Amino acid sequence: xxxGGFVITYHRPQxxxxxxxxxxxxxxxxxxxxxxxxxxxLETDHAIASLLDPRIKYYQMxxxxxxxxxxxxxxxxxxxxxxxxxxxxxxxxxPFFPDTFEKLLSIRDENPFCGIIGSVGHFFxxxxxxxxxxxxxxxxxxxxxxxxxxxxxxxxxxxxxxxxSGLKPDESLFFGFEELDFCLKASRKGFAILVNSEVFLALxxxxxxxxxxxxxxxxxxxxxxxxxxxRNLLFISDSLTLPTMRKRxxxxxxxxxxxxxxxxxxxxxxNFRMITLAFWHYLRGIKGKTLNI
Length: 293
Description:
Strand order of the largest sheet: 3-2-1-4-10-5-11-8
InterPro entries: Glyco_trans_2-like, Glycosyltransf_2, Nucleotide-diphossugar_trans
Oligomer: single chain
Low-confidence stretches: none
Number of domains: 2
Domain Glycosyltransferase 2-like: 7-143
CATH class of the largest domain: Alpha Beta
Keywords: Transferase
GO molecular function: transferase activity
Helix content: 40-55%
Protein name: Glycosyl transferase
Mean pLDDT: 95
C-alpha cells in the first residue's frame, strides 16, 4: 500500500512549512507530498526549495484556482505517482494527533467498497440540503461509521480507485462544499465513506463538542463565504438532480436574507446582498471565482 498526498496553499509559506513538518512526523507518514500552489508569486516555491526534501514536490497553478481547482490537479498528480491512498489537505489543517493517519488507514478494510476515509464526517439531508451532526453515542458503539461526506480540513484520504473511475472534483465550484460534492458523487458510484470513531470522538473531546447543539443561526464573520456556500449548494442540487433540495434551499436562504437584519442594518444589508447575488449567479449559471474571500 502506497500512501501520499497533496497540500493546497495560497500565500502562506510559513504555515505550509509547519504543516509539512507535522505531516511527515506522523507515525504512518506519507511517502511524498505534492504542494499545489495557488499563489501568483514565487515565495512558496523558494520556501519549498530551501527544504531540499525529495519527498516534497511542487506544482504552481499559475493563478488562484481555489481549493476545488487545486484539488483536481493534486488528485491527478498523486494518481500518476501510483499512490493507493491520497491525502487531500489544506496548508493550515495538519492532523490533530500524531497517529491520525495510522488510525484512519487501519479502517480501510472495514468495508470492501471503502473509497474515502476521514477524521470527521457528517450525514447530509439530500431533501433539505443541510448537514446533519452525527451523535456521539453512535460513534461510541462502532469502530467506524459510514457517513455522507468528510468535513473539510479533516484529513480526508481518497482511494486512487475513485480517480481511476473518472471522478474528479468540480473545479467550477472554486470554494465551498467541493468535498461534499466529491463525496456525494463518489457515493453514487458505489464507494463507501468512513470515519474513524476513535479519532472523531477524541477530536470532539479536545474541542469540548461532545454534546454540542448547533445554533439555529450564528452571525458570520465573512459573508462572502455565505455567498459561495449557497451558490454551490444550488449547483450541487442540479448536478445530483435533487429538485426538492433546491426548493428547500431557496426558501431557507430567502428567510436568512431577512433574518440577518436582526444583527444590525449594516450586517443585514451585506448579508442580503450576498444571498441575492448567490441566487442571481445561480440563475445565470455563473461559476468559478467571483468574490474575494
